[in-house]
Specification:
The protein has helices at 3-24, 31-39, 49-58, 62-66, 70-73, 81-102, 111-122, 159-169, 189-204; strands spanning 129-135, 141-149, 173-179, 208-215, 220-222. By secondary structure, it is an alpha+beta fold. The chain has a five-stranded mixed beta sheet, sandwiched between helices. The longest helix is centred in the N-terminal third of the chain and has 22 residues, at 3-24.
């Protein structure tokens, strides 16, 4: 195939993918075609299908691709800095959209909505992270704070820091959230002890702990639903 013919071929293929997306939405495309279409905005005049398929294979599906770090994406042949940033940006945009829908009018609509947001924003984190969502008496979100990153245990997650934010934001209730990168949907003894400690100290200050969620890539665990709060 001559250079001009090659360029015409890829431009024509991109146009066909765009047309199918416009007419049928994302359901009209296979996963590799979704990525292939996105890659047309980052990789010029080149066959993107092998790159799309390599990404899906390396990261075990499309959600894994969008949850990958920039340096990991660049390990795939054909993915440069610009393309890696584009893919990573899409994940960040998805997080913002889910967060906005979850906290619409800065009010939590349901526990399920909180879980959905946290799974999008935390489910694929490589390291453990502990967050607290602070609310007023109307369950309106005042703030979301990352309290600790790395190993989360009661020696590291200081109740003082959690309560300092509660006082700062004048919160009357909180939701505790942390992730298990390994995928285990079961609280450790340290998780349980930390939750009890935070609950007792918070309630002494007039701040109610609504729930503590453990988040993984594929699911969640509620301390409240399992009788641990």
């Amino acid at each position: 195939m001559k250079p001009n013919d090659s360029a015409s071929h890829y431009l024509g293929h991109r146009s066909r993918l765009q047309k199918r997306f416009v007419e049928n939405g994302i359901k009209g495309l296979q996963d590799y075609e979704v990525l292939e279409l996105l890659l047309t905005y980052g990789i010029a005049r080149k066959d993107r299908k092998p790159v799309a398929k390599a990404l899906l294979k390396r990261f075990d599906g499309i959600s894994g691709v969008f949850g990958a770090e920039i340096h990991e994406l660049k390990e795939i042949d054909g993915v440069g800095e610009k393309t890696a940033i584009l893919i990573n940006l899409m994940q960040s945009l998805m997080e913002l959209c889910v967060k906005e829908r979850t906290f619409q009018k800065v009010k939590i609509s349901s526990p399920e909505a909180v879980v959905e947001y946290c799974r999008v924003s935390m489910g694929r984190l490589r390291d453990e992270q502990f967050r607290v969502i602070y609310m007023n008496s109307q369950n309106e979100v005042l703030s979301e704070e990352v309290i600790q990153e790395g190993t989360v245990d009661q020696a590291v997650v200081y109740p003082r820091k959690v309560l300092e934010y509660a006082l700062k934001h004048k919160a009357v209730s909180i939701i505790l959230v942390h992730n298990h990168p390994g995928g285990l949907l079961k609280p450790s003894r340290s998780d349980i002890e930390l939750t009890k400690r935070l609950k007792n100290i918070s309630e002494e200050m007039g701040v109610r702990v609504h729930d503590h969620f453990i988040i993984t890539r594929d699911g969640h665990y509620s301390f409240y639903e399992n009788g641990l709060l």
